[in-house]
């Protein structure tokens, strides 16, 4: 008789960090919703069940979405509805003053402002800058014949793109870039008592406060001007603190995740047999590649919710106060949703756009359209200027036996670094 | 409370209360209707919250912007009464709106 596998600690185990998918497969036989032994919370690995939780904001609060389910509630839950208790303790939660953790009417109001931010027309207006800057970064790397993608290309690229879109003055952009580079990850497995350091956020917030006041007085065409002059749906004006929080979050939130997505995608493009050649021959496959990478290896492994009312997931009773890990990475590989080949890369997989790697429901990642545009633009720049892209065997080992270092985060899935060898286009 | 009359993709009819200030998309998804996928969460980017509005009420709605029009133009189920539910903000003036969820692409 085989011994049951001892449950590993999702939040701190370095093996889970290296291969979270193996951990989720270990947990999946316990059911699509299971109670962890290591923490007092539920783990949701089923696709349908994840969607159900994400689309039920009435019963599940997002207050712990950044703080995670690793910590006990900062109060003793009382009764079948703890909504008021949660709100009364909002200040105890990391990111409790940011839109990602808001619920109900406050969230609806702020989300209405966000819905203006990354519309197709705004991204189109920004496309020339994105193309030009991507081309420039790729060109320099290709001239060198090699590059470390994450720090040299991906991070500066996404920082500059969002800075341009928002209207951060050019002279401040490098300051932000440097500060972001030295910041700790979100959800660090190396700092279990304080896994999310907000110092970078506070640094950026100071600048945002100044810009917003300037734009309110002298609005231009950029996103900060639009925010500075925007109204909530009922016609009332958001206060300055709310706008600072929102613009800081929108600036910072997509940094790491978009940069990691570019690197995750590059791994598949290089190592999936024939994929690089297929993309070279038909660039219209890039979005399909990207959606499949998002499903298999999106940049966020999990988000978190807390039940604020006695409720259910499927037919499993969930009491008010129970915290829930919504394992997006597990949902992406749920064989009940994606079939027996759920772990394999397959271009144009039926229903692929329904993956939940950007979440679902009212808190769906607002920056998803931007992330998609950024990654596609950078891939086009690299494919335009190279004949071949290889992962550096000297740094990561040979194909089939690669070694990567992953960002030590229980939230982010992505490599700390990715070294590439680049063969410039000859004709 | 103000309400909409919704027909889902199976032809089932129901009445939903709505909160003013939220979108039609939120009204439908918060009520648990899975056939309105609303994948992008209201960013006017995916066209998976496509609905039909009863023709007699189309004039009550705000005009379509270029992004919404472009996305709907790509839908094989586009009708004259097509709108994206994420672009319709609910107000008391829309009480009694008759909405049908469009088939998914």
Written description of the protein model:
The complex is a heterodimer of chains A (427) and B (105). Chain A has 427 residues and is of the alpha+beta class. Chain A has helices at 14-18, 20-27, 47-54, 83-88, 104-114, 120-144, 149-166, 170-182, 199-217, 223-228, 240-271, 275-281, 286-297, 328-331, 335-338, 368-385, 393-396; strands at 33-35, 41-44, 60-61, 146-148, 303-307, 311-313, 316-318, 323-326, 386-391, 419-424. Chain A has a single domain, classed as Cytochrome p450 (Orthogonal Bundle), CATH 1.10.630. Chain A contains 17 helices and 10 strands. In chain A, the strands form 3 sheets. Chain A has a 5-stranded mixed β-sheet. A 3-stranded antiparallel β-sheet of chain A has the order 4-10-9. Chain A is globular. The mean pLDDT of chain A is 93. Chain B has one domain (3-101): Beta-grasp domain (Ubiquitin-like (UB roll), Roll). Chain B has helices spanning 24-30, 66-73, and strands at residues 3-7, 13-17, 50-53, 82-84, 97-101. The A-B interface holds A 51, 55-58, 105, 108-109, 111-112, 114-115, 117-121, 232-234, 353-354, 358-366, 368-369 and B 19-22, 26, 29-30, 32, 34, 37-46, 48, 65-67, 70-71, 86, 89.
